[in-house]
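User: Hello! My lab partner asked me to get a predicted holo structure for this protein. The small molecule is NAP, SMILES included with the sequence. Please write out the structure tokens.
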Amino acid sequence: MFDLSKFSLEGKCAIVTGGGRGIGKAIALGFAHAGAKVVITSRKIEELEATASQIRAFGGQAVPIQAHLGKMAGIQQMVDSAVEAFGRIDILVNNAGASPAMASVLESQERLWDTIMNLNMKGLYFISQAVSRIMKQHGGGKIINISSIDGFHPERTVSIYSISKAGVRMITKAFAAELAEFNIQVNTIAPGPVHSKMMDSHWINLTPEAAQKAKAETEALMPMGRIGDPDDIVGAAVYFASDASNYATGTEIVIDGALLLAPLLNAPGVPI
Ligand SMILES: NC(=O)c1ccc[n+]([C@@H]2O[C@H](COP(=O)([O-])OP(=O)(O)OC[C@H]3O[C@@H](n4cnc5c(N)ncnc54)[C@H](OP(=O)(O)O)[C@@H]3O)[C@@H](O)[C@H]2O)c1
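Assistant: Hello! Below are the structure tokens for the protein in complex with NAP.
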């Protein structure tokens, strides 16, 4: 009979990149509530300290590590510090991601390509590599990559981000295939729109009225009628981090309030 305690993360050690705010923060808090010790890492130490304090306030363990994960030197240093903190790594959530500017394919600059790719793909790949080597020594582990529904279809003015997120889905499959024999499971979560600094920055320069209108227009596109909250992503992350998902690897969960299905809802019904 299935044992519900398989969802517990008691005694596990996790790294959550981008764990100081948004989706990463929600996952770090969720993991700590499920019993894991967490390393949270990003560039802004104040946000990391604040999240770590919130975790310690309910008796959890959290270590903030400041790192620029778009730079190779920052990556190895962060992984070494995480191992130093807890002695092992059972779970890695590659959540840190960025899309710092919007530009059409005719206008995108090389610098924008490098900034996005160095973090969203290169950083994610080499963090996974460094952590996988440690997991292999310890008999296994779980890697969760945060992609996006933009990795399923191109979105105007964020082509580089969309390409990077499609790449994340393939990194998951490549690592899952090669690491299966080492008992390392690698999976993707692909969120749709979720309130966070990244999402809400779309409206930051608008007047309150214009922001309200733009938000309502986005919500009107959503079959569920709302934009998600970071907590909407946590359950899938706990599943992929826990023993409940031991036979799942190289796969993905889309959490988007059915936005990917929206065009089908408006298409004329054709029996096939
Ligand atoms: N919100 C959405 O609608 C949505 C939808 C689909 C997918 N996603 C994905 O979900 C993930 C989390 O995004 P979010 O929405 O929670 O956005 P967010 O609030 O902007 O969080 C992004 C996180 O990444 C960290 N980060 C950015 N650049 C970094 C760097 N160079 N080195 C280390 N850390 C860095 C940020 O911290 P610092 O600034 O302190 O470095 C922050 O903690 C991203 O991968 C994003 O692509 C989000």
